[in-house]
Design goal:
alpha+beta; DNA Binding (I), subunit A; Hect, E3 ligase catalytic domain fold; two-stranded antiparallel ribbon; globular
């Protein structure tokens, strides 16, 4: 399932226009707020904000699209009739608004609104460190201080490379909660320092994983 990524309005308009303002999976066309521009190759995997790497999907098809590029290509081939989703689309939009409002309230209180990241568990509806939480700092330190590739580091700890990238950029480890572009002070214990986190972000930028 893909997250929503912000791209420039100019590029988005170009992609929507090229695709005829239609979802390229279910052929839905309608309100512009129901159409998303999806990265075929995700930015975290090195995908660029150019129209050759972008495609128009409706909000539902975008929500359920896989992250891996090869899986997405197969997903796109399985065409469906957009009218079949109309009833679901209406109820989904209503539920999403209510859900988003509730999640916003929870995040402002410092509580996580997604599943627990690696190194944490949910305890009494709050994040709590697990017995393996010390490994989070180990991973950050190894990436920062050792000449080791993301592939080797991911394999060492049993992650996919994409999963490791998400860990290394997850602000939850700073004791923060992020939701809908807003960052709040969390009620949970931080597992790494802001200094270590910032150094890791700088290294990710230097090797082209993140952009400033």
């Amino acid at each position: 399932m893909s997250g929503k990524i912000i791209i420039s309005s100019k590029i988005k308009s170009e992609v929507l226009s090229r695709d005829g303002f239609r979802c390229q999976k279910c052929n839905f066309s309608g309100m512009s707020d129901e159409l998303e521009v999806h990265h075929v190759k995700l930015k975290v995997d090195g995908g660029e904000d150019n129209i050759n790497n972008l495609i128009t999907l409706c909000s539902i098809c975008h929500h359920y699209s896989p992250d891996e590029e090869a899986e997405f290509e197969e997903y796109l081939k399985e065409k469906i009739d957009g009218t079949v989703l109309d009833t679901f689309r209406k109820s989904h939009k209503s539920i999403s608004k209510r859900t988003k409002k509730g999640m916003s309230i929870i995040s402002k209180k410092g509580n996580v609104v997604t599943r627990a990241p690696w190194g944490y568990k949910i305890e009494n509806k709050k994040l709590a460190p697990t017995e393996h939480s010390y490994q989070v700092q180990e991973v950050f330190q190894e990436f920062l201080n050792q000449n080791i590739s993301l592939t080797k580091l991911a394999k060492k700890y049993g992650f996919s490379v994409n999963g490791l990238k998400k860990i290394l950029s997850n602000q939850t480890y700073l004791g923060k909660v992020k939701f809908d572009k807003q960052i709040h002070q969390g009620s949970h214990q931080a597992l790494i320092s802001s200094t270590l986190f910032n150094h890791v972000q700088n290294k990710l930028e230097k090797i082209g994983i993140k952009k400033k």
